[in-house]
Every structure is written in structure tokens, then in C-alpha cells.
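Example for tutorial group B:
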């Protein structure tokens, strides 16, 4: 009987010693991804409507791709406004244009102001969250963190075309542009053209 019991225990022992995942396993968050945080990119308009630009946050820097930017030490003030328009033809959740005014000290010490606009409520919300995260230099993940999808406001669900900043090395050259111009006579932002070959990289 004792031999039978020993044999049974030995046969079941591997079940209890099978490999298990360390710590919390699948629940463990890849927190090391945030060592260079905050990082995000946002497609909006610069200074006036339809003047498309891509705004990036990375560490203590904020910049417009291909143009220039500032460091947190140059930031002075932020104010926000919205133009609700006449209320007609607005998609639910969109309330007109959103205006983000950022005052800063230029390299020569003069006070300047930049304007960033968004037409979509979700894009504005994600930009303002990223901006406050940048100002406070909070490295922890936030609820709009989407991995490995887009960190931008466009919620591309994995079709970010390699732009997720947490999948790439930190950017050191602000002159690099990752935006593409629409072919002549085509609006790649429109529902008609968005998925056509001419508008896909």
C-alpha cells in the first residue's frame, strides 16, 4: 500500500512543479518601456485650421516634426479655448475646434506663444492628457496607453505604421518628419480616400 501511495505521489508531483511564470505572469506590465517617458505623438493643426502638423512629446522636449520645439524649462503658460461653431453638422463628441495656446521663452529670452488646434474631441483629450503628463513629467502609464498600437490620438488599433514611440529609439533630431503629404487633388484624411492605395504607405 505504501509503495502504491509513493508511486502515485511521484506520478502527480510534476503537475505541481511544472514551469510557472514569474511574479504575476501575464499581468505584469512592461514598466521598463516608460524609462524615457513621457512619449507620444499627436496629429493636429499648427496656428491655423487645416495646417497639418505632427506634435511630439518625449522626455522634457515638445516639438513639431520638421520645424522645432522647446524644453520644459522654456514653458511659461498654457491656456485653452474652444469654438463650438453653430452646433450644426457636428458628430457626437465633437464640439467644434479646440485651441491650445502655449506660452514659452525662446532661446533669446523673448516671450512667444504657439497655437495647436484639434477638431476632434478625442484628439483634444489625448493631447491635453499628454501635455499635462509632459508638464508634470509623469513617467507612469496612463489610461490612453495603447501597446503596441498608436500613442497618438488617432487610435489606429495596430496600424500605426511603426510610429509608436515605445517601439522605437528616442528621437534626437527634431527636423525628421514622419508625416506624409497627400497626393495632388486627394484628401487622404477623407473617408473616401483614407484606405486607397494612394494614401497607404
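The residue assignment follows.
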Amino acid at each position: 500500500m505504501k509503495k502504491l501511495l509513493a508511486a502515485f505521489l511521484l506520478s502527480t508531483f510534476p503537475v505541481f512543479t511544472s514551469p510557472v511564470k514569474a511574479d504575476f505572469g501575464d499581468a505584469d506590465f512592461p514598466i521598463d518601456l516608460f524609462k524615457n517617458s513621457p512619449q507620444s505623438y499627436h496629429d493636429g493643426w499648427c496656428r491655423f485650421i487645416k495646417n497639418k502638423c505632427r506634435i511630439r512629446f518625449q522626455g522634457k522636449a515638445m516639438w513639431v516634426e520638421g520645424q522645432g520645439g522647446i524644453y520644459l524649462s522654456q514653458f511659461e503658460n498654457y491656456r485653452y479655448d474652444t469654438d463650438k461653431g453653430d452646433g450644426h453638422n457636428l458628430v457626437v463628441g465633437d464640439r467644434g475646434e479646440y485651441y491650445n495656446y502655449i506660452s514659452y521663452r525662446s532661446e533669446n529670452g523673448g516671450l512667444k506663444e504657439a497655437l495647436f488646434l484639434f477638431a476632434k474631441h478625442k484628439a483634444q483629450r489625448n493631447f491635453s492628457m499628454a501635455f499635462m503628463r509632459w508638464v508634470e513629467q509623469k513617467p507612469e502609464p496612463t489610461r490612453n496607453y495603447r501597446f503596441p498600437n498608436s500613442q497618438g490620438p488617432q487610435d489606429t488599433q495596430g496600424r500605426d505604421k511603426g510610429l509608436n514611440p515605445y517601439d522605437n529609439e528616442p528621437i534626437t533630431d527634431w527636423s525628421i518628419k514622419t508625416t506624409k503629404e497627400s497626393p495632388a487633388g486627394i484628401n487622404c484624411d477623407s473617408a473616401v480616400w483614407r484606405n486607397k492605395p494612394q494614401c497607404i504607405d
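The helical segments are 2-17, 121-136. Compare this with the pattern of hydrophobic and polar residues in the output above.
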